[in-house]
Automatic annotation (TrEMBL):
Region (Disordered): 1-34, 158-194
Xref: InterPro entries: EF-hand-dom_pair
Biased composition (Polar residues): 169-180
Name recorded for this polypeptide: EF-hand domain-containing protein
Basic residues bias spans: 185-194
Length: 194
């Protein structure tokens, strides 16, 4: 009659759901040695490094090209995502650009330039919200950009090295799950956003 706890967890309809007492952003297996959020629930240094690389692929001005294949990119000082860069990032991450309502939410609640370009700080705010609310979505985003569960860049996609992502073909609007809009509203109700 007594089942092994691990057997019960793997037979759960949602085995990825955190155990009681665990927190979003800190569920990676201990042997991986990395977490998305630190003990203060802020973006970990390792995740920030990955996000710099992803942001740099789509930002303006463009970063200096990496010297070796697989080397991490760094966004230049004052870099931001234009509307085209935002669409390219969404397309490469989710398969389609954001719809207009999601873009409006990003520009209203995240850190942007005076001209409405998403800054790296704003990009980190997006991932802070997402990771607090749906850690697995952040892991999927990282995997889409070639990172493994140890946050190492293990694969580059052909698009990363051959063409500027802003020139990629247009696709239908992205569906963000959970939507950025609902995450922003939840955080606003909790008093974490203005």
């Amino acid at each position: 009659m007594h089942r092994d706890i691990e057997e019960l967890r793997t037979q759960s309809p949602r085995p990825e759901t955190p155990e009681p007492g665990s927190r979003q952003g800190r569920r990676n297996p201990p042997e991986a040695g990395v977490q998305l959020l630190d003990d203060d629930s802020a973006i970990s240094i390792a995740l920030e490094s990955c996000l710099k690389h992803v942001f740099a692929k789509y930002c303006t001005p463009r970063p200096v090209p990496a010297q070796q294949r697989g080397e991490m990119l760094e966004p230049p000082e004052g870099a931001y995502l234009t509307n085209e860069g935002l669409d390219a990032w969404a397309r490469d991450t989710n398969g389609a650009p954001f719809d207009e309502a999601t873009k409006e939410e990003i520009l209203e609640f995240m850190d942007v330039t005076e001209d409405g370009g998403l800054t790296f700080k704003g990009f980190m705010q997006v991932y802070q919200l997402q990771t607090e609310n749906d850690e697995e979505e952040t892991w999927r985003d990282l995997a889409a950009h070639g990172f493994d569960r140890t946050l190492r860049l293990v694969a580059t996609r052909r698009e990363d090295s051959d063409i500027d992502p802003r020139l990629a073909s247009q696709a239908s609007p992205a569906s963000v799950t959970p939507s950025l809009i609902s995450m922003v509203h939840r955080q606003r109700r909790k008093g974490k956003l203005r």
